[in-house]
Amino acid sequence: MKRLLVVTLLTLMMLTSVALTAQNTMFKFNQDGEFASFSQSTDPSSSVNFSVSRNFSTGAGTSASINYLSFNFSPDFSILTIVQIVGQIPASAFTGQNTQNLSLNLDMSQLDPATSLSQTCTLDVIAFIITCDVGPSGSMQLNFSQNGAQRTRILALGEEITVGNFTTRVHQRSDNSSANYSGTIFGLSVSGSNATVGINHNSSLEFVKNHP
Q: Which of 6, 65, 99, 152 is the most buried (most CB within 10 A)?
């Protein structure tokens, strides 16, 4: 796990360093309401970071947003595969009346290219060549159940990750509780007790494209 973490952090630092300064925002969501998230590393060569949140409701209708990032190294650690899915999803895909029980049932065909991005990138760690293509097909089906083992409050969290020509920025304020999670992501089972559920307060998810 340490090797994956170190190499992944170095990779993100390199990707960030080559990102050019001119940027334009492709989409931005004000996240207000229930959310669920988890991070999982099942072996030394792979990891998954996931979050889903309800967006602030306006007269234009309700929606939710997702931020998914996975890393998977080849057996010799020379090739890194990155899957990134970020943007708006239908409100009906993220259900649950409170943080006691929340569920996501999302098919990738429901993503709107105008308000989301799904891509799979491969990075040759030796030659430092990155290539990106369309993201995976299939679905995510996840259930979250609050377990109350720990409660926390995030007063101000800022995170920025650049993959290729795109940068994701997260700013979060929230009340949180630990939770159990289980389900499948593209047919692969995931589960654990280290998930987080809670309420976002005027948080945001921003996705920008870097230009020369």
A: 65
